[in-house]
Amino acid sequence: MTNTESGMVSETLDKLRALQDLLHKRHQVEQEILEIPRLLATKTELLSRLKKSYLERNEQLVVAGERIEQLRDEAIEAERTREGYEGQMDQIKTQREYEALDKEIQDSGEHEMELRRELQREEDQREEMQSALEKEELLIAKQEAEVSEEQARIKSEVAAREKNLADLKAQENDITPGLDEELLYKFERIVRSTEGLGIVSLQGNVCSGCYMTQPAHFVNRVRQGEDILFCTHGRIVFYQDEEPSWDDDSSEEPDEVFLDDDEMFEEEDEDPDSEMDEE
Q1: Of 239, 240, 261, 264, which cross-links 223 as Cys (Cβ 3.0–4.6 Å)?
Q2: Measured distance CA(24)–CA(194) in Å, rounded
């Protein structure tokens, strides 16, 4: 691999690291824009229920009014009937006629009183319904005001976040030129699904994103920096040296050693009994 190719990989990783934060912020803002109208939906639903209840109660009030008018007419008619019987008293000639007419007067009077009692009950109920409707009208007016305020607030907040979104996208556009489109698409999906951790360091042989130990040959490839590589959980990884284990006073660093898979697990062939024999 040439130095030019290595430099291109390093430049791509640098861009992805810078892009990661912007993408995560953009995804958060996009989610906020989706979340903002939820309170409005709740208030709108409540307003809808209040209006539906008001219409139902209003229909019941109309029916109650019609029933009251009917009872009032029946009571008036019962009163006229009673008065008509009472007017016939002057024409009574026999005891038998008197008893029959008196019974008619009593029956019509009782019917009239029953109608007037029912009329009173219906009027009382209508007054209660009317009072409840007036309260609902106040609640509806209050809820409509809250919905209007919420709509204005949402419009303002969405506008602010959309401006923020445009700024973030502009910053992304400053970084993305030169990046492979397929890599960019895949990277954005990784950032979205991993809550902002699309590119992470490989510390030693452990991925700092998923904390899983990676195979030795994979670690070597990451250290060599020849390709854009993904860990077993899908994140892009770059190598980050572990803290040096040599003496701080030493001016020389140990040479890097790249291990093969077989060397990671190979056991020493020396026979410990032979060392004892030599002693």
Answers
A1: 239
A2: 9
Mean pLDDT of 226-249: 70
Angstrom distance (rounded) from CA 19 to CA 12? 10
Q: Which two tokens stand for residue 126?
A: 């209508």
- Cβ atoms of 231 and 190 within 8 Å: the answer is no
The pLDDT of residue 260: 45
13/87 same-domain check: no
Which residue is it, tokens 């959980």?
A: 233
Domain that holds residue 148: 32-173
User: CA-based angle 200:33:41, to the nearest 5?
Assistant: 135
Task: Give the separation between CA 45 and CA 47, rounded to whole angstroms.
Answer: 5
Whether 36 and 169 share a structural domain: yes
C-alpha span between 21 and 196 (Å, rounded) = 7
Same domain, 126 and 187: no
Can you tell me the distance from the alpha carbon of 59 to that of 67, in angstroms, rounded to the nearest whole number?
12
Percentage of residues in the chain having pLDDT higher than 90: 38
Element (H, E) at 228: none
Residue that wins the pLDDT comparison between 248 and 223: 223
In the chain, the amino acid numbered 103 is K
Tell me: pLDDT of 41 over 70: yes
SS3 of 204, please? coil
pLDDT of residue 91: 87
Give yes or no for a contact between 235 and 194, defined as CB atoms under 8 angstroms apart: yes
Question: Are 13 and 43 in the same domain?
Answer: no
Could you give the C-alpha distances from 75 to 65, 82, 115, 239, in angstroms and in order? 15, 10, 6, 97
Q: Which of 123, 144, 173 represents a domain boundary (last residue)?
A: 173
Classified as helix, coil or strand, 236 is strand
Domains contained in the chain, number: 2
